[in-house]
Amino acid sequence: NCYYDLLLPARAAGCYEELLKHFTKGPLQKEARYFLDHMMRADSIEPQRHVIANFPNTIARKDYCGPASLANLLGFWGKWHDQKNIGAKLFRDGVSNWKMVEFPRSLGFFSFAFIGSIDLIKQLVQMEVPVLVDEYEGLDGHYLVITGYDDRKGVLIAQDPNFMEPVEITY
Hints:
Distance between the termini: 28 Å
Largest sheet: 5 strands, antiparallel
Number of strands: 5
Strand content: 15-25%
Shape: globular
Structural class: alpha+beta
Order of helices and strands: HHEHHHHEEEE
């Protein structure tokens, strides 16, 4: 459960080091190494602005913000999937956050849901890890991917699947 320890970087680093000992091959080892390397770098540098370069910007079909955001996220990591095919799997009984976590897992990715903070999202982005978020207004939810932040402007930078260009969300 290293992902819960991202709130405590020293504990998370120890957890990822343990993963590296147990998983010498495969996607978990690669992912643990990636997080550990970036965690150490992120701990020593605190930029006021960081944007993940070359994040995909596929526009969502009607009501496909979740599948389109997942398609963009998976494409960023080199596994391209069509939002229509993702939607076919996610919409069987309605999209839920759990299904949004499970779909990348079914492809071999390490994914998880968490309740975080702006600081945690910024730390992940600084480590070059885009963060899929579900924002709510009333009863309606909307998925988008946080790909950057700018402390000077007080904004998170997101790839909203309803727009080609990134959007800024005030925090």
